[in-house]
Every structure is written in structure tokens, then in C-alpha cells.
Amino acid sequence: xxxxxxxxxxxxxxxxxxxxxxxxxxxxxxxxxxxxxxxxxxxxxxxxxxxxxxxxxxxxxxxxxxxxxxxxxxxxxxxxxxxxxxxxxxxxxxxxxxxxxxxxxxxxxxxxxxxxxxxxxxxxxxxxxxxxxxxxxxxxxxxxxxxxxxxxxxxxxxxxxxxxxxxxxxxxxxxxxxxxxxxxxxxxxxxxxxxxxxxxxxxxxxxxxxxxxxxxxxxxxxxxxxxxxxxxxxxxxxxxxxxxxxxxxxxxxxxxxxxxxxxxxxxxxxxxxxxxxxxxxxxxxxxxxxxxxxxxxxxxxxxxxxxxxxxxxxxxxxxxxxxxxxxxxxxxxxxxxxxxxxxxxxxxxxxxxxxxxxxxxxxxxx
Length: 366
Known about the structure:
Elements: H1 3-33, H2 41-58, H3 64-71, H4 74-102, H5 106-117, H6 128-173, H7 179-188, H8 195-215, H9 231-247, H10 255-274, H11 293-305, H12 314-325, H13 329-338
């Protein structure tokens, strides 16, 4: 092979290898270090491909209980696969760079790169450029290990905090969580005038959900310890309760309920942006929602039957409820479909299976 052709091929191999390593490092930093929502194509591809594999098994099962057991493994298993994908990328990139600097056979390059990446040290090279590559690859290997050690406790701490509120909601809203059940229980405990405390707590929960489930997007797929609980159905129950209180229940207006609804739909929209879920960012108050007028009337009838004070003008109450619900209806239903949430009134019971998109979208303005 002519000298200049060989020189060109080695230069090209080095640049390609360096680009692969750099891309993997950027992917790692976006996922582990950057404290904001920064979707990454490589990470997204890994999760979507793994979801396709899991869907093959899920589609065979007839019962939700078995599908839930399978989906419970999806996020942890994919989280284990992801570092392996990064390591393969680093290994391959350095093989290309070692070939550019040494010209050794492929198996020898594989041994050199693997020994360096995993800091085994059983293969060494005695020239400045190759030694420098060995040092940098070893440093990257240690960097990945350190990030994984610090990442997992942070993620599980956020998961635990999220699930504490979801579990507490079971006491107030039943299982599956229902806005009607929550209002009836608060009425029987004579605490309808204390609902503001609930809105403050869940507004904070939504704010934390927004931050954790976009910067640590894997959390969205971590399922609750109990198969009939889910963070998305809990969010739907709280938002529907706040919407009913703001539109239908005959008690003094509470601005905190409106703030809770806004915090909730913003959080769900930001999570939807991360997964490429489409929705109308500026819906009209009379826009379509998945809850029908008949379902709304049935809920009002149940509230009246249980003694909860309901406004006399149900037509106006329906218009107001729809005006609140339209802000979060689409994202709630589609997120429930994406994560295969357990059935719950006015949320996962009408969800359609949604798959995250490979296409990255710009984050919408709040």
C-alpha cells in the first residue's frame, strides 16, 4: 500500500476513533453530570431498542400482573446495558486510535484497549503516543466507574422520595387513586377546608418530579413497589381532584389548587418533551378531553350521593373542569401509555400505548 494512502487511512482511523470516544463521553456527561434535561440520541436508542425487545415478551402475556412483572425489569435491565454500550464505544474508539499509532493486528489492539480501559495493565506499549492513549483510556474507565457509583444512590433516593408520596396518596385516594374517592374521604373527615395543605405538598412534589424525571429520565420507567400503584396515576388523581375543587365542589375558591394544577401540567409537559410526546402547548379552554360529560356527571352524582357539596350549575362546572383538564389531559394519557401504568380512573384506563421517539425536540417554553 502506498505510504500516503496508509498515512491517510491511519489519520482517518485516529479521527474516527477520537470522535467515537468524544461522543460517548458527551453522552455520559449529558446523562450523569449535566443538571438539566438534555436528551441524548445514544441513550434514547438504547432505551427504545430495549423496549422493543421487552414488548415482544409483553405482547405474549394476557394479564396485567404478568406484564407488570416484566416491565418492572425494563428500567433496571436497560440501566445495566447502558454502561456496557458506553464501554464498547470507548473500547472501539481506542482500538481505532491504537491502530493508527501502532498498526498492530486487530486482536492485539483489542487486548491493548481492553487492558487499558479496565485498568488491568497486562498489555503495555513503550512509546509516548501509545502510553498517553493508555493513560487516557484508563482514566476514562475509572471516570465511568466513579459516575456509576455516585449515580445509582442519587437515582434511588429520588425514587424513594417519589414513592413515599404515591404510597401516602393511597390512604387519601384509594387504590387505584380516584379524585372522587379523595374528595369523599376529605368530606367525611371534615377536612375539605384543609385541602390547601394537600395542594402545597403536591405542588412541591410536581416541582421535584419535573427536575428528577427529566435529568434522570430513567426514573419514569421505574415502577412502584406495588403493581397497582404508579406515579403517573397518582399525578392524575391529584390534578383531577384539584380541577374538581376549582370547578365543581361548592367550597370557597383556593388559589393554591390552581398553582398545583399549573405545577402538575408543566411537569408532565416537560417530561413529555423529553420523550418526544406530542401535545398542544396552548389548548383552548373548550378543547377536547378524554373525560366525557357523562363520566363527569356520574362523578358529580356520586359526590352528591356521599354528601359532598356540589355547585348547582353543572353546565358551568363542566366547562370550568374541562378548562382545567385540557391543560394536562393529553400528556397524562400518553405518559400513562408510555410507561404502561396500571388502570386508574380518568388516566391509565384510557391510555393508548405510546413509544418514545428517536427524534429530539426542543424544550417548550413554560
